[in-house]
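HOLO CASE FILE
Compound: S-adenosyl-L-homocysteine
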Amino acid sequence: MDDLVSDLSPPAEASGLQTAPGFAVARVILKPRKARPFFGRHPWVLDSAIARVEGTAADGDVVDLISDTGKFVARGLYNSRSRIRVRLYSWDNTEALETEFWRRRLTAAVELRTRLGLDDVQGAARLVFSEADGLSGLIVDRYGPWLSVQVTALGMARRLDELVPMLVEQTRPRGIFIRTEKGVAAAEGIDLRDGLYWGQSPEGPVFIVENQLRYGIDLAEGQKTGFYVDQRENRLAAAAYMRDRRVLDMFCYSGGFSLNAAVHGQAREVIGYDSSHKAVLLARANAELNNVKNVRFEEGDGFKSLDALAASHQRFGAVVLDPPKFARSRSSVDDALRAYHRLNRLAVDVLEPLGILVTCSCSGHVGSEDFLYMLRGVAEQTGRDIQVLAMRGAGPDHPLSVTCLESEYLKCFICRVN
Ligand code: SAH
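Model generated. Tokens follow.
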């Protein structure tokens, strides 16, 4: 009898595990006193929290997270190569991580953007934002009828063949591109080739409309997934303060803040700088596309250009600072804050009295409070008052999950400097 049972049962069931698709093949047991954040729905289980793995899990497999007292905590995907050993997706023991589960999550994500009115096929929007949409490791941006997919978790990379048809069904794109960040791919063991994954390539740039302005986007070569969609609302909000002002847009990329300032803000004149030659060419092309005459774009390092502008006594009625991420890890926060301080100080030096400073940070490790303290230091050292008029973040298509505050990253403070 015993023999018969073991013959009929898959080995995992003998240890009490279900092996239906989407259920766990192994159990990841936490160390004592490590379960709390995961009962609290935090989705990243680091290797340091794990006591052992019972059963064998291959990378990308579904596993159950179990407390040291044997309680089910959550269900997730395993990756032995990543510091995030398990990414959690469900806290419901009866829920399988299979096709219908992923479809429900994707549908909920896409539905939010539709409700936000971001489903205009001419526009751009982030359709899926990783943890914030319960899909840790998957980012999907829509640029007109094309999708750009960024995969930051091996478990998602392994499921692309399942996820892509769902995206096709729900958004009817013309083509889907894959973009991976090199560092992330290496850290996760993702082996994906960048480029067209499904459908057709656009001939040349893709054109999108944002805040009634047109932009050309290079899906294959552009920065990030091609455009900084997260600043959509901030570009318009900042523009509202720029009437008749001379505006400096530092780290301008494809010219988003500049064009909004010139067209919606009625700025007198706008000068944008970026150290990337390609970015400057994109920005110039976008100005032309919108027939905007009072903006110009120059190639230059942000710090050096500000230094040079200050040295030649140039003054501006508004300065936008939107630098790249300065803090890549927690340990680099102090260095990052020093760099933000220096940059903001230089910006204040070229600002007229009662000028507008739009200062951004996309370093997730630098919190809003740290950023405010940094600005306080700038006020102290320059002897200029800084009034914060608005503390803004990314647009609503980049939601923030309160159980994964690490996904909070973008700050955009609009200030007046006396
Ligand atoms: N403001 C832009 C996004 C900026 S992203 C928008 O609204 O779309 C940051 C930009 O900083 C990138 O375009 C990058 O090329 C540029 N950059 C990086 N290092 C720089 C440096 N040292 N000086 C000037 N620009 C830099």
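CASE NOTES: Confidence is low (pLDDT under 50) at residues 1-16. Residues 228-417 form a domain with the Rossmann fold fold (CATH 3.40.50.150).
CLOSED: yes
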